[in-house]
Design goal:
Blueprint lengths: L26 H16 L10 E9 L10 E14 L3 H20 L2 E14 L12
Parallel strand pairs: 2-3
Antiparallel strand pairs: 1-2
Helix pairs in contact: 1-2
């Protein structure tokens, strides 16, 4: 058995999970996971676009209706990104929210009740018959 799972003074008895310590995941680790997930969800961007970045606030989060009295931790994520335009901005933001929430849940086993997406800049992409930077 690994160290820390056997109770001191007891031979061979395992310490119950509720009595063991807890792992604390730093906010910046969750932010890195969220940023990477946002990059994956957005896909290819124009070369002059900044990559998505995220800020995270991790707070205690009580599960309503759960029998446990100990609150878990929840990540409230804010993602800032740039998108190419024209595109379906709402659908792309929804995809980012969904993917970030899934990846954070899977990566650090943390609830994600909120993913706020802020589009900071739109990059006009050239379409057939149009000149970039000029309105049609």
């Amino acid at each position: 058995m690994s160290e820390g799972t056997v109770a001191p003074g007891r031979r061979g008895s395992v310490v119950p999970a509720a009595e063991r310590g807890a792992t604390r995941i730093a906010d910046r680790v969750v932010a890195k996971i969220a940023s990477q997930a946002a990059r994956e969800a957005v896909g290819a961007l124009p070369p002059d676009a900044a990559p998505p970045h995220a800020t995270v606030v991790v707070r205690p989060h009580a599960h309503p209706g759960a029998g446990s009295t100990a609150p878990s931790r929840a990540a409230h994520v804010s993602v800032h990104l740039e998108l190419d335009y024209p595109c379906d901005i709402g659908a792309r933001c929804h995809a980012v929210r969904r993917h970030v929430a899934e990846r954070v849940r899977a990566g650090v086993s943390m609830e994600v009740p909120e993913v706020a997406v802020q589009v900071e800049r739109l990059h006009l992409t050239a379409t057939d018959g149009s000149v970039p930077g000029r309105p049609r």
